[in-house]
Automatic annotation (TrEMBL):
Keywords: Molybdenum. One of its GO terms (biological process) is molybdate ion transport. The lineage of its organism: Bacteria, Bacillati, Bacillota, Negativicutes, Selenomonadales. Pfam families: TOBE. Residues 2-67 form the Mop domain. This is Molybdenum-pterin-binding protein 2. Transmembrane segments: none annotated. Gene3D superfamilies: 2.40.50.100. It comes from the Bacteria.
Length: 67
């Protein structure tokens, strides 16, 4: 599959916390961990399991920093 997104972070699914509507998917990558909140339907459709190798695509229109 080709995609135009350039902010791709390859990693491995560490854990999935299922919810009724959305689920939390924790992905371990070279620099640490990133957490994605996606629909539980998407988790099922992608057949995500801990240990799967995936890529997280990041698209942000705003970045906020608080200190």
């Amino acid at each position: 599959m080709e995609i135009s997104g350039r902010n791709q972070i390859p990693g491995m699914v560490r854990r999935i916390e299922f919810g009724d509507v959305v689920s939390k998917v924790v992905i371990e990558y070279e620099g640490g961990e990133i957490t994605a909140i996606i629909t539980s339907d998407a988790v099922r459709e992608l057949r995500l399991r801990p240990g799967d190798y995936v890529s997280a695509l990041v698209k942000a229109t705003d970045v906020m920093i608080v200190k």
